[in-house]
């Protein structure tokens, strides 16, 4: 029996660049938008809804709408860090179902690498942040904040560096087949744990790449999807959540996925065991490990065992993940990986992933985004997607 | 190895938090407690994040706690210890662990507050392993 879908993902595009020294950020947004529209068989004149996050230049989406020449009746600039684009898919589906728009464009673009940005400097976005005085003087950076989550998970559940390393190993097995991936060499568990320690217990190879580029998605109404053919993918369920420090009473061993996952699974009326392929946000290996537990692919605390031995490698393990190489090896454009998570899940459901990593008869896929920092304030977005005949 | 000290950035101070930073200058770690629900929260706010009451009150914390988690930032020019410390008062706060050898730092170890001057001469609560 074919499942109902309120809207479909009709177009995807991942920018091939990983270092964009000769392009502006608006230009990258426009290039990915044109790529996704072409993939869908639409033009920018078909777009009536536009979604971007706070990373896009300008006030909300207005500057980018003007740059690209969009004529909009709907816009949403929800900002939940790297999970934004997964959240945007859910919001686009609801806006389409409510009749507010018919063709939604979602874009991400950035060039941190060309601009020479690293993650070492304290991230100070300024403004009236209420928590700032209680954090910035202590020099929180992305790596030490994720390091604290990993350290606590190891303390409570006996998770090891070797287990975390298996996540990178699996990603590298997939990346070898992706000609655009930044890191294509297959690595071993030993390679990961012998790479330099960045912030205990995270080694260099526990961390994702820094890359330029971006991506775009087109979400359309069922009527338009029908006219575009069977490369359109169903959006069966969506969940989102925000987790924070809760007045100083928090637990670093789980993420917002513990809330967003069950909401998405319930809406799609499927179980974790039904998922053929999963795109899991992988800013660091620990991000994947905690998220896999939170989404219910294994019990809390058993993630280390679950990912070991190649269980995430396509064709080898039970849960093929991030078959493009993920953020760990392929691409983490603008330090925000949710976009590429959705894109690879759509490729899998269309049967358009690289033949070496394509999951046979891939019918149901999950994409999960994690934004902000799992050790402070973090956004979570989960979508469950189905092949056109799912 | 014993730690080399790094330069601490100044905290942002505003109307809601100036009392906290005045306390730090006097060697006190101040917390906010809600008179309506009785809970301590961190960071200190005018409005209680647990029950939304505006009847919140400052008090001096013991300055003692345990390491909830930590990460040693080795890639920094001067390596340092990022940590979350759970105070005896029940709330967990971000801080740095100073003075102590990196190898001695473990989750669950007892720590006590001490203070460091920031670049603008403000006092910043940090922690060291309890003797």
UniProtKB/TrEMBL annotation, chain A:
Thiolase C-terminal domain boundaries: 239-386
Domain of life, per lineage: Bacteria
Gene3D superfamilies the record matches: 3.40.47.10
Record-level Gene Ontology MF annotations: acetyl-CoA C-acyltransferase activity
Record-given protein name: Thiolase domain-containing protein
UniProtKB/TrEMBL annotation, chain B:
Keyword Zinc belongs to the record: no
Highest taxon of the lineage: Bacteria
One Pfam family it belongs to: zf-ChsH2
InterPro entries in the cross-refs: ChsH2_C, ChsH2_Znr, NA-bd_OB-fold, Thioester_dehydratase-like
GO molecular function per UniProt: DNA binding
Entry keywords, A to Z: DNA-binding
Domain (ChsH2 rubredoxin-like zinc ribbon) ranges: 21-54
UniProt keyword Phosphoprotein, yes or no: no
Residues in ChsH2 C-terminal OB-fold domain copies: 58-116
Alphabetical list of Gene3D superfamilies matching this protein: 6.10.30.10
Protein name: DNA-binding protein
């Amino acid at each position: 029996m074919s499942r109902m879908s309120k809207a479909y993902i009709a177009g995807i595009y991942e920018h091939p660049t990983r270092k964009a020294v000769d392009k502006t950020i608006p230009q990258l947004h426009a290039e990915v938008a044109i790529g996704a529209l072409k993939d869908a068989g639409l033009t920018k004149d078909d777009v009536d809804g536009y979604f971007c996050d706070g990373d896009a230049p300008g006030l909300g989406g207005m500057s980018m709408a003007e740059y690209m020449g969009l004529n909009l009746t709907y816009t949403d600039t929800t900002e939940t860090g790297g999970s934004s684009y997964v959240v945007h898919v859910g919001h686009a589906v609801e806006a389409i179902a409510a009749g507010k728009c018919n063709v939604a464009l979602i874009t991400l673009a950035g060039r941190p690498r060309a601009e020479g940005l690293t993650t070492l400097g304290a991230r100070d976005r300024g403004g009236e942040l209420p928590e700032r005085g209680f954090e910035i003087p202590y020099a929180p950076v992305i790596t030490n904040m994720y390091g604290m989550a990993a350290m606590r998970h190891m303390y409570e559940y006996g998770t090891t560096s070797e287990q975390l390393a298996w996540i990178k190993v699996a990603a590298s097995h997939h990346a070898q087949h992706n000609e655009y991936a930044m890191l294509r060499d297959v690595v071993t568990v030993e390679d990961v744990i012998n790479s330099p320690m960045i912030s205990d217990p995270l080694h260099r190879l526990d961390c994702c790449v820094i890359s330029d580029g971006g991506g775009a998605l087109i979400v359309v109404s069922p009527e338009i999807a029908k006219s575009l053919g069977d490369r359109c993918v169903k959006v069966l369920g969506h969940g989102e959540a925000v987790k924070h420090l809760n007045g100083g009473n928090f637990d670093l061993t789980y993420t917002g996925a513990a809330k967003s996952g069950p909401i998405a699974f319930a809406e799609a009326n499927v179980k974790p065991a039904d998922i053929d392929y999963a795109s899991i946000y992988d800013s660091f290996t620990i991000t994947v490990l905690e998220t896999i537990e939170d989404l219910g692919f294994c019990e809390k605390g058993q993630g280390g065992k679950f990912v070991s031995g190649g269980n995430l490698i396509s064709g080898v393990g039970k849960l093929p993940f991030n078959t493009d190489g993920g953020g760990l090896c392929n691409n983490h454009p603008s330090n925000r990986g949710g976009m590429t998570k959705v894109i690879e899940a759509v490729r899998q459901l269309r049967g358009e992933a690289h033949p070496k990593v394509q999951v046979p008869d891939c019918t149901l896929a999950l994409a999960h985004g994690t934004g902000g920092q799992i050790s402070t304030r973090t956004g979570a977005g989960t979508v469950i997607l189905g092949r056109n005949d799912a | 190895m014993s730690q080399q000290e790094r330069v601490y950035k100044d905290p942002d101070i505003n109307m809601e938090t100036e009392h906290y930073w005045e306390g730090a200058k006097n060697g006190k770690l101040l917390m906010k407690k809600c008179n309506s629900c009785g809970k301590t929260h961190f960071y200190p706010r005018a409005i209680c994040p647990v029950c939304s009451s505006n009847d919140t009150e400052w008090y001096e914390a013991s300055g003692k706690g345990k390491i909830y988690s930590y990460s040693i930032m080795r890639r920094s020019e001067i390596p340092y210890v990022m940590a979350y410390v759970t105070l005896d008062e029940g709330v967990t706060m971000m801080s740095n662990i100073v003075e102590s050898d990196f190898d001695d730092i473990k989750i669950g170890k007892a720590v006590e507050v001490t203070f460091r001057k920031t670049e603008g001469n403000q006092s910043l609560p940090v922690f060291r392993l309890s003797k």
